[in-house]
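Sample log: IclR family transcriptional regulator.
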Amino acid sequence: MLNKPTDFIASLAKGLQVIESFRAETPRLSIAQVAEKTGLDRATARRCLLTLHRLGYADYDGKFFQLTPRILRLGMGALAALPLPQLVQPWLDQLSEQIGQSSSVSILDETEIVYLARAAQRRVMSIGLMPGSRLPAHCTSMGRVLLAALPEAEMLALLERSDLTPRTPRALTDPAEIAARIAQVRDQGFAIIDQEVEMGLRSIAVPLYNVHGQVVAALNTGLPATQAEPEELARDYLPALLKVQAGLRRVLH
C-alpha cells in the first residue's frame, strides 16, 4: 500500500510500460514506436529498452527491439504459483483429447482476457496462444462469458474503456449491440463467437465456478469455421464443456 510519494518508483513503472508495449501483433518495435505506444519521451524509452537489452530481456539489431524468452521469467513464475492453472490443466488435456479440439482457460484483466492454461490439438489462430497471451474481452467467447458475470454497471464501464476497433468484418463495434449479446450470454450460460476475433475461427465458452458459485474463469474450445456452423457448436461441444464445468466446480476455491 502506497503511503507517500516516495513509495512509488517511477522508473520501474516506466520500464513496465515499455515491456507491456510489446504484443503478439507488434513483436518488434523501434525506440520511436515504443515512445509513441507508452507516451514516454524518446530518451526515456531508449534508456528502458537498452536496459532490457543489457539484462538479456530484449534483442536489439540496431533499429528494432524484440523481447527474448528470458522475459517469461517475469510472468511464468507468477502463473505457476496460481493454483488455478495447475488444477485445470489435466481437465483441459482430457477435454481436448475427447473432443479433438484445442481448449483454453482464461481470466479477465480489465478489458482483456489472459490465458492461464491451454491444451492445443492444432493451431487454429494465426497468432500462437499460450499462458499469458491476451485478447480483447468484448469480441471473444471467454471474454463475453466473463463480462456477463460482472454487475451490469461494471460490465458497461469496461465496454466504455474497451478498444472496439474491429478485428474482422464480422466483429461487433456498437457497445449497445455487444452489451445485448453479453446479456444473452448471461441468460443462456454460454457464449458463441463467429469469426469476430479472426476470420475462419469459431469458438464456444462457458463460465467456470468455484465451490461458492462465483465465476472465477472461463473455459472454451475453438475450431475452424469449416468444421462446424455456429448453431452446431452448442450441440456438438457444449455438453463436454459443461461436464468439465461441473467437475471443476467441486474443486475450485
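Observation: The chain has two domains: 10-74, 82-249.
Observation: The chain has a mean pLDDT of 91.
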